[in-house]
Write a structure and sequence with these properties.
This protein is mainly β. Helices cover about 0% and strands about 60% of the residues.
Length: about 425
């Protein structure tokens, strides 16, 4: 009987090799004064010095526990992300998590090399036989360089702002911007966007765009916007974003980094009444006089004091009283001729006054109502007639003397009984 023959392969040997890692970036252009992301890719072109079983070749060409750290080098950037772990990197490419960087506002356009330090562990030698394998591991740290470019382009900075924005009113916002970059911009426009519903542009829009056109290096341009603040807006600073859209010298449409400005709201225009005096009486004419004060915060032009009453028995010949232009803190006197009909009741009545004026844009605005109380005295006869000697004996005659008193507030003439 012939026994079967079992073939046995007693394989043994060594595999030599190592990873071969290069570093590349897909984001090579940056703008001065911006926060950006540097995206890196690792490419492992592992080397086999002595081949063997595939699993051992894969072992010696894989970088294990890979860490990556970018440094500024001579580039005008700040690296905001620390060491990145990439795990195991076999042959092929691996994209790393983005690295946050800040490009200096004063960065000179040009190309720069950013050093990238890559560290990892790998197996240099695999000594294997049918009973198993022994591994010889090494650690490697190498510095690679990626080239980036700070773009030669327009850059914009706000140099001055002014505003007449006022609660419950429409005003102007003026912004002066300078092209501090190294290239001119063409077809430029500046879009202002409010960060609050209480501040709007034009007829209530959240944003407004001003056309600028060609914008040379070092040139300052002033753009103006119409802004409105709601009547219930809070007196505080409001943030407005500015974005410059333009075409660069290569004909590419670009948008600048967002610029932020603050718009401080002035208080709502207010007025006050002082020294109000009234002498009203049922069935008679009287006066309502006093002083109106501009409490500010703005000057008002062509102000007119308006008089009104909810009582139909109180009538004023002319309801509007022209006042002089009033700076904040200025005051002006007024006096109305007011008639009270016989149908009125003697009591205390509320009178409403308001100030209509023109704001800095020439638009008419009306203040909140200024109320004052007026006491209406009871009806009083125009004349008082009294008999001086009011007794006479029966059957006798005598002269009757009568005293007539002017009970009014003004002298009278040509009076007869």
């Amino acid at each position: 009987m012939v026994a079967p023959v079992v073939a046995q392969t007693a394989s043994s040997g060594q595999v030599y090799g190592s990873p071969d890692i290069d570093v590349f970036t897909s984001t090579s252009e940056f703008e001065p004064g911006t926060q950006s992301q540097l995206r890196l890719t690792l490419q492992n072109n592992g080397e086999i010095d002595q081949s063997g079983p595939e699993r051992y070749e894969s072992r010696v060409t894989t970088a294990r526990g890979v860490t990556v750290e970018a440094r500024p080098g001579d580039a005008p950037v700040e690296i905001n992300t620390g060491t990145i772990g990439a795990g195991n990197v076999p042959m092929g490419t691996v994209d790393l998590s983005p690295i946050d960087i800040t490009v200096s506002e004063n960065a000179t356009p040009g190309t720069y090399r950013i050093p990238v330090e890559v560290s990892y562990t790998y197996t240099r030698l695999v000594d294997y036989d049918p009973s198993g394998a022994e591994y010889t591991d090494n650690t490697r740290t190498r510095t690679h360089y990626v080239t980036v470019r700070v773009r030669d382009q327009p850059r914009f900075e706000v140099v001055e702002t002014s505003s007449t924005a006022q609660v419950g009113n429409t005003g102007d916002l003026s912004v002066t911007i300078e092209n501090t970059g190294t290239r001119a911009a063409t077809e430029a426009s500046v879009t202002a966007t409010s960060r609050s519903d209480e501040l709007t542009f034009g007829t209530g829009s959240a944003s407004s765009t001003a056309q600028v056109g060609r914008w040379a290096v070092g040139e300052r341009r002033t753009v103006n916007y119409t802004v409105s603040l709601a009547e219930d807006a809070t007196v505080r600073g409001y943030t407005v974003n500015l974005d410059v859209d333009y075409t660069d010298t290569d004909g590419i449409a670009r948008t600048s980094r967002t610029l932020n400005i603050g718009v401080t709201a002035a208080e709502e225009q207010s007025f006050a009444l002082e020294n109000v005096s009234t002498n009203l009486r049922v069935g008679a004419d009287g006066t309502v006089s006093g002083t109106v004060i501009n409490n500010g915060p703005k000057r008002v032009d062509d102000p007119v004091l308006r008089f009104s009453s909810n009582n139909p028995n109180i009538n004023v010949e002319t309801s509007e009283y022209a006042l002089p232009d009033l700076e904040p803190g200025d005051s002006a006197d007024f006096s109305y001729e007011v008639g009270v009909s016989d149908a009125a009741n003697a009591n205390v009545q509320q009178l409403n006054l308001s100030v209509a004026y023109r704001n800095s844009r020439g638009n008419t605005r009306v203040s909140d109502s200024l109320t004052t109380n007026a006491e209406i005295a009871p009806h009083r006869d125009r004349f008082v007639v009294e008999v001086a000697n009011n007794t006479i004996e029966a059957g006798s005659e005598r002269a009757l003397r009568v005293r007539v008193t002017n009970n009014g507030d003004e002298p009278v003439s040509y009076t007869h009984l």
